[in-house]
Design goal:
The protein is α/β, with parallel strands linked by helices. Helix content is 53%, strand content 15%. The relative contact order is 0.07.
Length: 260
């Protein structure tokens, strides 16, 4: 794509960009980088009437303004991308540089999930992160502003905040938050507190006319995961039938493969 020089006065920030706050110290450092080296990477914008809306590069534009530049290099898209593509582009661009605060990422992940009614598994795949990481970020949205501030400024690890989320007793959760505020709550301690009453596996029972199917999983499964597990069981049973194996022989063989 061709890079154009655009006047800063024609650029507008995207009001729905995942980044909601810019760190003044980081902006100051970026300003002096711009003064010394200029804008090394073009921003991305789309045409909005006679103006342009920034897709990616909000901090560079702000730093350029502080450095009193008049123009910035930009890649211009002919039209606004659809909401899903726009948010995905912004998330990937910022996550590559670890620019977004945890709460900004959590909010953006939730928006991305809601746009296409994604499962946590599908969200994780879209962002190339583990399902556990996606779950941790989404869980942050259930915490108070006080706790979120601790996560954003580094006083509380995301994994510790996730452990607090899993505590269902309100009084115990507040006690954990107080410990976290005093820097007396570590991730392992928080996880142990919750694990005392959280079962190691979730038991999902499917009642059928001819019996029951029981699934034991580390966490509550989504429907798609249940389908995958049950399809794998059906495949194993069909293979055992073709080979003339008994049920017990099949179960022993499957356990050996899992544990071996």
């Amino acid at each position: 794509m061709k890079v154009r020089q655009l006047d800063l006065s024609l650029l507008d920030p995207d009001p729905e960009h995942p980044r909601q706050r810019m760190d003044p110290d980081e902006l100051e450092r970026l300003k002096w980088s711009v003064v010394q080296f200029g804008i090394l990477q073009p921003i991305i914008v789309f045409v909005a009437g006679t103006r342009f809306t920034i897709v990616e590069g909000h901090r560079r534009c702000e730093a350029a303004s502080l450095a009193e530049l008049r123009e910035v290099p930009a890649i211009v898209l002919a039209e606004r991308p659809d909401a899903h593509t726009l948010l995905l582009t912004q998330l990937h661009a910022n996550s590559m540089r670890s620019d977004l605060r945890p709460t900004e990422l959590a909010t953006a992940y939730k928006r991305l999930q809601d746009l296409n009614n994604r499962s946590v598994t599908e969200l994780a795949a879209a962002m190339h992160i583990s399902k556990g990481t996606a779950t941790q970020y989404l869980s942050l949205l259930s915490l108070s502003e006080e706790v979120l501030a601790m996560v954003d400024d580094g006083r509380l690890a995301r994994s510790t905040a996730y452990a607090i989320c899993r505590e269902t007793d309100a009084d115990k959760r507040q006690a954990m938050i107080r410990k976290a505020g005093a820097r007396r709550l570590r991730r392992d301690d928080a996880a142990r507190e919750v694990s005392r009453k959280v079962p190691s596996h979730v038991r999902s029972v499917f009642p059928l006319a001819s019996g029951e199917v029981v699934l034991l999983t580390p966490a509550e499964p989504e429907i798609a995961e249940c389908v995958t597990i049950l399809q794998a069981v059906i495949t194993e049973c069909r293979r055992a039938t073709r080979n003339g194996l008994s049920l017990q022989t099949l179960l022993h063989a499957m356990r050996d493969r899992r544990d071996g």
